[in-house]
Amino acid sequence: MVYDESPGSMSTSHHDVIVLGTGGVGSAALWSLARAGASVLGLDQHPIAHDRGSSHGQTRAIRKAYFEHPDYVPLLDRAYQRWAELEEQSARSLFARVGILQVGPPGGEIPRCQRSCRLS
Description:
By secondary structure, the protein is an alpha+beta fold. It has 3 helices and 4 strands. A hairpin with an 8-residue loop joins strand 1 and strand 2. It is elongated, with a radius of gyration of 19 Å.
């Protein structure tokens, strides 16, 4: 429950989920929850589309060639699906798929990247 503490106000609002932070991840969570029928509220200490978050700027990169672990591949597959859904619903091109060049020493991160690529 969220209370409106402005002078003279006694109203309350009910939400199923409150998300703290409305940057890239928080906004995606809000959108997904609202699509699923939840009543949501996003709170942020800064105005919408501020330049203080980890995802500010004009470009972002997403890749399936994760050297960290191939377990990320299903999550990334879902992220690509969500980008396509968002583009379809907004009738805008939001995502440009380009290649990736991964360079490194033998025995470094490259074999782990290749393992992730084989799974996608």
